[in-house]
Known about the structure:
Distance between the termini: 62 Å
Order of helices and strands: HHEEHHHHHHHHHHHH
Strand content: under 5%
CATH superfamily: MetI-like
CATH topology: MetI-like fold
Largest sheet: 2 strands, antiparallel
Number of domains: 1
Amino acid sequence: MNTTLGTRIAPRPLGLSESWRRRLPLLPALVFTILLTQVPFVMSIWYSLTDWKVVPPTPRQFVGLGNYGKLVSDHFFRQAAWTSIELTVVPVLGSILLGTAFALLLDRKFFGQGLVRTLLITPFLLMPVVVGLIWKNQMFHGLYGVINWVIEKLGGTPVEFISRYPTWAIAATLIWQWTPFMMLIILAGLQSQPGDVLEAAKVDGATPFGIFRQLTLGHLRPYMELGILLGTVYLIQVYDQVAVMTGGGPGSTNLPYFVFERSIGGGWDFGRASSYSIVVVIASIIIATVALRVLSGLLKGEEIA
Length: 305
């Protein structure tokens, strides 16, 4: 008689599934992240639907989308939005062009390459407040700034860059800080080029400029797109350089600093300031979504290659 037929399979003990056992240690971090990020965001959405002024103290009243309806007619908001566009587009384009130029110079072997690369990366490692103070006090200062010292040596007249050209001064500072970031991305793209294709182009008699225009530039396109999108996501939120260099003076107030002025910076209108911040967050989410799609496509392309 076959005794195996009478063997009973022991029931599995009741408890969590294997997948939930793996996820359980991550739940505290997930809950903490939700509490730290999403709860304040939901509260900001609620505040944006109310008329809430702290000074003078007034009762909080629900106004629905009234604060958002006032955005279009708010001249100062439109001006801050335009300044944000300037402080995003100009630094991104300037840093991507300079970053590409430096990456092309570093994409070759020479003595001291590692030292030069480290020195070029340094500006991106500095804190934004430090960068703003350096350029305000050591570069743009009217009396002892480096740029005005050079202008005087060339026979020119010193220029008060911060007061006369505040937006362009901040944009130049951001270009200096973000050029290393773009350089690293473009350099990674240059070093991923297939060497056999470049050698074949040289054998066929292609000039260096022709190789760059027809082969390298097309290969670098997704890397440039990635750098532009990531730079846009971060630069649209610039606050430190504006606060340190100009203090939100005329022509230099962007949306993040505008939200600060309308809330804890003296305006104390938390309802309308929250609606402004929600608009900035939505714009950042849209840009970040596009950036993630580009990054996903870039990684898929690398896997195929």
